[in-house]
Amino acid sequence: MDFLQLLSWACIVFTVGMFSTGLTDMKTMRESKSTDNIQFLPFLTTCLNNLGWLFYGMLKRDQTIVLVNIIGALLQILYIIMYFHYTKHKGLVMSQTVAAGTVLTCGWLYFGMFLPEGDSRLSQLGLTCSVVTIGMYMSPLTDLVEIVRSGNVQCLSFPLTVATFFTSTSWVLYGFQLNDYYIVVPNTPGIFTSLIRFYLFWRFASVNQSSPSYKPMHI
């Protein structure tokens, strides 16, 4: 097994592990029969992101990208169905899902039919997926600022932080091996935001000794 194959397997294992952390929320929904304190949009945006990268992987003919995002999209769809089943705000969830479906359809028409086949299509799709992924990695920064102010890290998930760190690192190395900066660039912020979270866990671990300093993952 060469280094690229090793990185490929690392990307698959760590990314599927990161996507699987949503099983914690699914278990909580099943046990409580509600979606209180669980956000819907992360499931929806992650699903859209998976489908975008899936199309990119198909155009690039990269089996690693294709496999990871097929699994990721299926898991997100499962979470979305579970959320819709238990939520009290079905109208809002349905409208957000329809809006996401409209965006997906427009994207498919643009990238799949309007743009000619070749490097231009691949480059524009890669750029779009990269921007969305960077936005998803950077979106929790406002929460991190609040954690610094409050000194309370109980709202952070330590297993998710670990999974994100190893996932991002694997994809950055994989992208470098392929000389594909559409893979390298969007995953780099995931490394930095994970390191910030690790520091916050270390910095505020002893703030509240009577309870865990992070949310453990129970599956």
Automatic annotation (TrEMBL):
Subcellular location: Cell membrane; Golgi apparatus membrane
Transmembrane segment boundaries: 6-26, 38-59, 65-86, 98-116, 153-175, 181-202
Domain of life, source organism: Eukaryota
InterPro entries found in the cross-reference section: SWEET, SWEET_rpt
Gene3D superfamilies the UniProt entry points to: 1.20.1280.290
Molecular function terms from GO: sugar transmembrane transporter activity
Swiss-Prot/TrEMBL keywords: Cell membrane, Golgi apparatus, Membrane, Repeat, Sugar transport, Transmembrane, Transmembrane helix, Transport
Family: Belongs to the SWEET sugar transporter family.
Function: Mediates sugar transport across membranes.
Name of the protein: Sugar transporter SWEET1
